[in-house]
Write a structure and sequence with these properties.
alpha/beta, globular
Length: 907
C-alpha cells in the first residue's frame, strides 16, 4: 500500500502584482435560514461548494458514481444517472440504480456523426443538436434529471478499420472541432458562438461529454493497449479537436479513455488530464471515466506506476484516478464491486500517495463541486417554474405523460424532427461518381416519366430490412416508431409512384432466402428487365462495432459480386453504400455509372435517398475522410503514428502519399461550381496577424445546388517527413442558384498554422510562409487557384487560459495538492497557472514545478465577498468568516487579459 507523505513537497512562490478587492460585499452574512446552495443570488459554483461542504465523507463518495448516484434526502439531493446517450438522437437514460442505462423507446434517430461530418455544415449540426436536446428535456425524469449525455465522440477517424468510425465526424481535427462544437452548443442551449441563449435565463439545457480523451482509435486492444506517439502527434492530432471544442464551446465534461497513452492509463494520467486539458487547454468542467476505465487500470493494464514495486490494488486505482482528475466514476460496463463510492473514503483515511500528492477528502470536494455546479446550472435545485427548458418541455409533452415504452406512441417524433432527420440525411449523401448513361446524359438524377411505363428495381438486403440499422447508440423503435421510419426501398417506391402512379418499383433481395451470404441469382437475372436499378449495399454491427474492428475494407459477401453482376446485366445501375466508413470499391467502381455513399443515415434515410436520386435534393455531401483503396495502403491499426517513416505510410490526407480511391473533401453534385479569383489581402503578414482571403464561387450549371469551398494551407518549404502536405485552413458551404456567384471570405489566424516543436516544447511557425490553395478537395488535381503568403516575425505568446489550484499555507508540507474548504483566518495560496497560445505554461505547472512569470505580467485577485475572503494590497488572500466567496484571478500581459474564478468555502 502506498501511503504518504513520504517526501517534502516544495512549491515555489508565485511572484505577482495584486490588487485589493474594492467590490461590495454580497451577502457576507446570511440572516435567513435558506442554505446557500438553494439561494439563487449565489453563483452555481458557490452553491455547489456549500452543498458539498454539508456532506459526510461517505455521502461525498456516493455521489461520484454514474449508475446511479443515490439520493441524499436530508439535503434534498435526488438520485441522478450521469450515464445517458445522445450521439444521434436521445437514446439512453440511466434511471436504473445499477447497470447500464436503459435504451429509450421511440425517440427520434438522426444520421450518425460520420454522416453529419459529411455535410460539412456546422449550422445544420447545431439545429439537429437543438432538436435532440429539446427531446431530451421531454423524456428524462421530471424533465430535470439525468441530463448529462456521454456524447459526442470526437476521436478522429484516422483508420477506416476502427469499429467506431460511424461515431466520428472526420479524420481532420479542424472539421471535427467545427462540427462537434455546434453539437455541444446546440445540446447545451448555446448560440453558435458558445454563449447561453438569452431565452435560457442562464440555465443549461443539457450537459455534454466529449470523448474519449485521448488517442482511443482501436477496439482490438482498447482495454489493454497503449497508444504510443511523440508529443507533437499528441498535440497536433489526437488532442487537437478537444482543445478547439473546449475553446469554442466549453463543454460540460470530458470522458477519459480505456487505453494507455505512452504507457500510462488515460484515467490515471495527471499530465494528460490536469496539465494538458485543464491547465493548458483551459477546461473547467468535470471528467468522467469511460465505463469502467478506472477498473481497467488494474484489471486490463495491471498498471504499476513509475517508481513503484507493485501494480495498483482496488483502493489505489480509484485514488490515483480521482487524484489525477477523474471526477466521476462510470462504474458499470467493465467493473467489479469496487468503485469511487466504496473505496475513496478508505483511500483518504490511508493517505495514499499518488502522482498528484497525498490522497485526501479534498479531491472528492473538488470533483463534487465541478459536478454539482453542472446540476445546479441545469436547474435541478430551483423551482421548475423558473427554468424555461423545463416549462417548454412540459408545454410540448405534459409532465409525467411520457414513458419509456411503446405506449408513448412516438409522440416526441414530431413532424418537424422527422423532417429535420430527412434534411440532414439528404445533405450527408456523397455523390462519388456519376458517369454518362447510354443516351449521353448522366444517369443521375434519375429521370422518371410522369406517365407511362417505368420500372425501377431496388436490390440488396439493406434496402428493405425487417428493422433498419441506425448505428451504435440508437434508440429502440417500437411499432409506432417504426411507422415513422422510411427505409431505402420504401422511400424510393413512394417518391417514384408520386411522380408516376403507373411506375413499378420492385424490391429484389440480394441474398438467397434462408442464407446470409449466398448471392440471389434470381435477383441478378431479373435486374435486366428494369429501366434502372439501385443496388443498396451496406454494413451493420455484424461488420464492426464498439469492441470489434474490421480486418478488411471489403463489403460483406456477396455484395461486391451482386454489384458487378447486376451492373453487367443493366447498364443503368446506381450503387448506394450505407456503411460504417470507406469500403473497398476497386472491384466495381469503374463498372457502375453512379456511386453514392453515406454512413448510417437515420430513420428517414429512405426519403433522403429518394430526394437525392430523383433530384429533389442536389447532393452536397463531401467526404470527411480519405477513402483508401484497401487496407494495404494503411499501417497497422495499432500504430498511432501519423507521419510517414521508413516503410510506414502516413495517415490522413495530410500525410498519405499514395493514391486514394477518393480524396478527402471529394463530393459531386448535379451542377458544376467554378472557383477562382483567389485574393489574399496581404502577401506579407506578421506571425501574430491574420491571413484574409476571398474567392469567387459560381454555379455554372442549370440547377440550384450547394458546395463546400475548401481552403488548404501548405508550408512553403515542406519537409515531407516533418510537415503535412497541406492542412484544411477553412471551409464554407455555399448555396447558389443557377449562374449565381458569391464571394467567399476566410480569416485564418497565422498562429493556427503553427506546428508543435518538441525540442522547444511549443508551437512554432514554418520558415518562409505558406501556400494557400482554393480547392474542391484535398487532391492536387482539384486545386482551382493558389496564392503564397510570406510570414515574418516570431510568435508573441499571449495568455490563452488561466487556472488555479488553491490550497492553504502549510498544505505543501502535508502533501496536500488541492483544497476547496478552508478554516477561518487561513492564507489561501491560489497557485495560478497561465497558459499561452503557443502551448507553454508559466506559474504553477505541477507540484514541485513552477515556471516564473515573464516580466510585465500582472496577476490581480479580487474577492466578491471580502467579509468572507479578503485580498490585501499585496495580493494575500485570507479567509475571514464562515461562508462562501468567489475569488477572481485576472492576468494582464501584452495587451491581453484572461481570468478565472475559484470558490472558497470557509468553515
Amino acid at each position: 500500500m502506498r501511503r504518504g507523505p513520504t517526501r517534502l513537497l516544495v512549491t515555489l512562490g508565485l511572484c505577482v502584482s495584486c490588487a485589493l478587492s474594492t467590490a461590495p460585499a454580497l451577502a457576507q452574512e446570511r440572516t435567513d435560514e435558506t442554505p446557500v446552495y438553494l439561494d439563487q443570488s449565489y453563483s452555481a459554483r458557490e452553491r455547489a461548494a456549500d452543498l458539498v461542504s454539508r456532506m459526510t465523507p461517505s455521502e461525498k463518495a456516493s455521489q461520484l458514481i454514474s449508475s446511479q448516484a443515490p439520493a441524499i434526502p436530508r439535503l434534498g439531493v435526488r438520485s441522478y444517472g450521469w450515464w445517458n446517450e445522445a450521439a444521434h438522437g436521445v437514446a439512453r437514460e440511466q434511471y436504473n440504480e445499477e447497470g447500464n442505462p436503459e435504451i429509450l423507446t421511440n425517440t427520434t434517430s438522426y444520421p450518425v456523426s460520420l454522416s453529419m461530418g459529411s455535410t460539412w455544415n456546422p449550422d445544420l449540426m447545431h439545429r439537429v443538436a437543438q432538436a435532440t436536446s429539446s427531446e431530451a428535456r421531454e423524456v428524462v425524469r421530471d424533465n430535470r434529471l439525468d441530463l448529462n449525455f456521454y456524447s459526442p465522440t470526437i476521436n478522429l477517424s484516422r483508420d477506416p478499420r476502427w469499429g467506431r468510425n460511424d461515431e466520428t465526424f472526420s479524420e481532420d481535427p479542424g472539421l471535427t472541432a467545427a462540427m462537434a462544437s455546434q453539437y455541444v452548443n446546440g445540446m447545451e442551449g448555446k448560440d453558435k458562438q458558445g454563449n447561453l441563449l438569452p431565452s435560457s435565463d442562464g440555465y443549461l439545457k443539457t450537459s455534454t461529454t466529449i470523448k474519449h480523451f485521448a488517442a482511443n482509435n482501436s477496439e482490438f486492444n482498447r482495454l489493454t493497449g497503449t497508444s504510443n506517439m511523440d508529443e507533437r502527434t499528441l498535440r497536433e492530432y489526437y488532442t487537437a479537436p478537444f482543445k478547439e471544442v473546449i475553446r469554442q464551446s466549453s463543454p460540460g465534461s470530458i470522458m477519459t479513455a480505456y487505453n494507455r497513452v505512452n504507457g500510462v492509463p488515460a484515467s490515471a494520467d495527471v499530465g494528460l488530464l490536469d496539465t494538458l486539458a485543464r491547465k493548458t487547454f483551459g477546461f473547467d468542467g468535470f471528467f468522467t471515466s469511460d465505463c469502467d476505465s478506472v477498473y481497467e487500470i488494474q484489471h486490463g493494464h495491471n498498471w504499476k506506476p513509475e517508481g513503484e514495486e507493485e501494480p495498483l490494488d482496488h483502493i489505489e486505482r480509484n485514488a490515483y484516478a480521482n487524484a489525477a482528475g477523474v471526477d466521476l466514476n462510470c462504474n458499470q460496463g467493465y467493473h467489479d464491486e469496487h468503485n469511487f463510492g466504496n473505496t475513496l473514503p478508505e483511500a483518504a483515511q490511508q493517505k495514499i500517495e499518488t502522482h498528484n500528492g497525498v490522497y485526501t477528502e479534498n479531491f472528492m470536494d473538488a470533483s463534487l463541486i465541478r459536478m454539482f455546479t453542472v446540476r445546479i446550472r441545469l436547474g435541478e435545485f430551483d423551482d421548475p417554474e423558473q427554468v424555461p427548458w423545463v416549462q417548454r418541455a412540459r408545454e410540448r409533452v405534459p409532465k409525467g405523460s411520457w414513458e419509456d415504452a411503446e405506449s408513448n406512441n412516438a409522440v416526441t417524433q414530431t413532424p418537424e424532427r422527422l423532417d429535420l432527420a430527412r434534411e440532414a440525411a439528404s445533405e450527408s449523401i456523397v455523390l462519388l461518381r456519376n458517369q454518362p448513361a447510354e443516351d449521353g446524359g448522366k444517369l443521375l438524377p434519375l429521370r422518371i416519366p410522369k406517365s407511362g411505363q417505368y420500372r425501377l428495381a431496388v436490390i440488396g438486403d439493406h434496402a428493405n430490412p425487417e428493422e433498419m440499422y441506425l448505428g451504435g447508440y440508437s434508440s429502440d423503435q417500437g411499432p409506432s416508431g417504426r411507422a415513422n421510419g422510411v427505409n431505402g426501398y420504401e422511400g424510393l417506391k413512394r417518391a417514384v409512384e408520386e411522380i408516376n402512379p403507373d411506375a413499378v418499383v420492385d424490391y429484389l433481395p440480394g441474398t438467397k432466402p434462408g442464407t446470409e451470404n449466398q448471392l440471389n441469382r434470381n435477383s441478378v437475372r431479373a435486374s435486366a428487365d428494369f429501366d434502372s436499378v439501385v443496388v443498396y449495399g451496406g454494413t451493420d454491427e455484424s461488420t464492426a462495432k464498439e469492441d470489434e474492428d474490421r480486418e478488411s475494407l471489403r463489403l460483406p459477401e456477396p455484395q461486391t459480386k451482386l454489384i458487378n453482376e447486376v451492373a453487367a446485366n443493366n447498364p443503368n445501375t446506381v450503387v448506394y453504400l450505407e456503411t460504417i466508413g470507406a469500403v473497398d470499391v476497386s472491384d466495381f467502381s469503374s463498372e457502375v455509372q453512379a456511386l453514392l455513399w453515406s454512413s448510417y443515415n437515420g430513420q428517414r434515410k429512405g426519403q433522403a435517398l429518394a430526394d437525392v436520386l430523383l433530384g429533389e435534393s442536389n447532393p452536397s455531401g463531401h467526404l470527411p475522410f480519405t477513402w483508401y483503396k484497401n487496407e494495404s495502403q494503411l499501417p497497422s491499426i495499432g500504430d498511432y503514428s501519423i507521419r510517414p517513416a521508413d516503410s510506414r505510410p502516413g495517415r490522413t490526407y495530410m500525410y498519405f502519399d499514395g493514391r486514394a480511391a477518393y480524396p478527402f473533401g471529394h463530393g459531386l453534385g448535379y451542377t458544376e461550381f467554378e472557383y477562382g479569383d483567389l485574393r489574399i489581402q496581404r502577401d506579407h503578414v506578421n506571425a501574430n496577424g491574420e491571413v484574409r482571403a476571398s474567392a469567387r464561387v459560381t454555379n455554372t450549371g442549370e440547377v440550384a445546388g450547394s458546395d463546400v469551398v475548401q481552403l488548404y494551407a501548405a508550408s512553403s518549404k515542406a519537409d515531407r517527413t516533418e510537415r503535412p502536405d497541406e492542412r484544411l485552413a477553412g471551409f464554407e458551404k455555399v448555396s447558389l442558384r443557377p449562374h449565381e456567384s458569391k464571394r467567399v471570405e476566410f480569416t485564418i489566424p497565422v498562429r493556427d498554422l503553427a506546428l508543435f516543436d518538441q525540442q522547444r516544447n511549443r508551437y512554432e511557425l514554418s520558415a518562409g510562409g505558406y501556400e494557400f490553395r482554393l480547392a474542391h478537395s484535398s487532391s492536387e488535381a482539384d486545386v482551382a487557384d493558389s496564392e503564397r503568403v510570406t510570414v515574418h516575425g516570431k510568435l508573441r505568446p499571449v495568455p490563452a487560459a488561466v487556472s488555479t489550484t488553491p490550497r492553504a499555507a502549510g498544505d505543501a508540507e502535508r502533501g496536500i495538492t488541492v483544497r476547496r474548504t478552508f478554516d477561518r483566518d487561513t492564507v489561501v495560496r491560489p497557485r495560478t497557472t497561465v497558459s499561452f497560445n503557443d502551448g507553454t505554461l508559466v506559474g504553477h505547472v505541477a507540484d514541485e514545478r513552477d515556471e516564473p512569470l515573464p516580466p510585465g505580467m500582472r496577476v490581480q485577485y479580487r474577492s466578491n465577498r471580502p467579509g468572507v475572503v479578503s485580498v490585501n494590497p499585496h495580493g494575500v488572500i485570507r479567509t475571514r468568516d464562515s461562508g462562501v466567496a468567489t475569488v477572481t484571478a485576472t492576468v494582464r500581459y501584452r495587451g491581453h487579459t484572461e481570468s478565472t474564478k475559484f470558490v472558497v468555502k470557509v468553515r
